[in-house]
Amino acid sequence: MILRSKIHRRSISKMCYYLSNPKDERFQMSSKRYGVDRRHFLKYLSALSAVPLLGQQVEGRVLQQPKFKDNPFQMGVASGDPSPTGAVLWTRLAPDPLHDGGMPEEFVKVRWQVAEDEQMTKVVKKGTAIATPQLGHSLHVEVDGLEPDRWYFYQFKAGSEVSPVGRTRTTPPWGTMPDSMRFAYTSCQHFEYGYFNGYDHMVKEELDLVLHLGDYIYEYGGRDKMPRKHLGNEIVSLDDYRNRYAQYRVDPQLQEAHRIFPWIVTWDDHEFDNNYANLVSEEEGISPEEFLYRRMNAYQAYYEVMPLRKATMPRGPNMKLYRKIRYGRLANFYVLDTRQYRSDQPNNDGNKELAGKVFDPQATMLGEKQEGWLMSNLLQTKSTWNVLAQQVMMARVNRGSGDQRAFSMDQWPGYEVSRNNLLRFFNDRKVPNPVVLTGDIHTNWVNDLRVDFDDPNSPVVGTEFVGTSMTSGGNGGQRIEVFEKAAAQNDFVKWYNAERGYVACTLTEDEWRTDFRVTPIVDQLGSEMATRGSFILEAGRPGAHPA
């Protein structure tokens, strides 16, 4: 049985007061009681005060020509959230990435430039940015003024050190219809289960962008007798999270995929803590202060290491991550957050019958504000394909046997009213070609999405492509009996596979093609790649069929 700890609104208000008043003696008493270090709260408040430094001139000492004890660009470069005129360019100065970065507590001037060629001779944009200790010396440069629908190259310089050359791509103008686009997506890359072999093959594909659907890191402490081992214990502090991200980002396979493609990212649960729901911890006995303090650390570290715009900057233990990325009139990507705003999982989580709080009309997966934002945008869309990039399975898959029905309470079936409202909205409002992209479950699925899953004649209103994990679960191909039975007994499930890898998608105005790429081996470096299944969607005709 999973025990869950709830945090009440009153406790949230108290936490926010403490964030603003760290000298209050009640805070000091609470910090001693729960082991929350006042120094870390003050450090975070300093980070918030550094927000203006991202876009304005800095007063005070700035290291113009810093000296580093080692290469400060060991975590590589990345780009993300592209637009027709620009993208976010990212790096982090970290000469000792696995040990708190190894940087002095000082501001550092960093130069950046964007060019039309990889040799960086045809520079079209350049500038300077300030890396601050409050944000772990990470940089998020929002470049604008570029030409739409083309590749660019970028680079950072700090002192005499030069970063690798990254590559990024702007999107087509919003009012135009591109001939095609190609992207890939993956999720769930548990470091300890092995190597990110899928990225070796992904970088060889001609892609316009990459989506990551969550569980980019795992929070657990290191375990012996695994292909690789996390450094340290389960992560809690800001430095813990920073070091864990660094351990992942110095991986050459992951780093190269970030270097060559712009990424669109969202989180699931392991970027913070397994199976959390809004303000509810999976574990019993977690105090409100501990929970929110840890979430604050997790969210800040996530922002620091991802190519995200300033609009997503966390505010204490809150961070608005849902957003829209347009690719001309061909596709709208609605990047969702199914963790931060959801109601607590019903019936103590797990796999249960549909009963009780599953049918609570007030229960929500997205939260009222995010759900309203999504529906409002879907009403106004002029795109051929409307893509929900999200985390947990939406189709109501029965995992039980015989008369014993069982559904995952952590996935959309645990939020029956919320899920049904969204699928009815697809149908009633005639949303053009909804496609749901899902991660989380470490397996591949193709599901028809119906208005009523109890009625086999109910209209199909969309398709869900569930992508497997990059590494989580270890080498693929093992039999998962409960999933095999579920795939066989739910007639809306069109295909199932239990191997590691990623999913590649090719879109045109008339057709969507999905190819499920797998890498059978992850417990050692190097693996062949195979395409286990390919499916086609035809614009205006819901439901996938084999290619």
What does this structure look like?
The protein is of the alpha+beta class and 547 residues long. Among the domains are: 62-169, Sandwich (Immunoglobulin-like); 181-214 and 321-546, Purple Acid Phosphatase, chain A, domain 2. The chain has helices spanning 9-20, 25-34, 38-49, 197-202, 238-249, 252-260, 288-305, 368-380, 416-428, 481-489; strands at 5-6, 62-63, 77-83, 86-92, 107-115, 123-131, 138-143, 151-158, 161-162, 166-169, 181-186, 209-212, 262-265, 280-281, 323-327, 331-335, 351-352, 385-389, 407-408, 434-438, 444-450, 460-466, 493-497, 501-507, 511-518, 530-538, 541-546. Strand 5 and strand 6 (123-131) form a beta hairpin. It starts with a strand and ends with a strand. 49% of the residues are buried.
Low-confidence blocks of residues: 8-13, 22-36, 44-58
Average residue pLDDT: 91
CATH architectural category of the domain at 181-214 and 321-546: 4-Layer Sandwich
What is the number of helices?
10
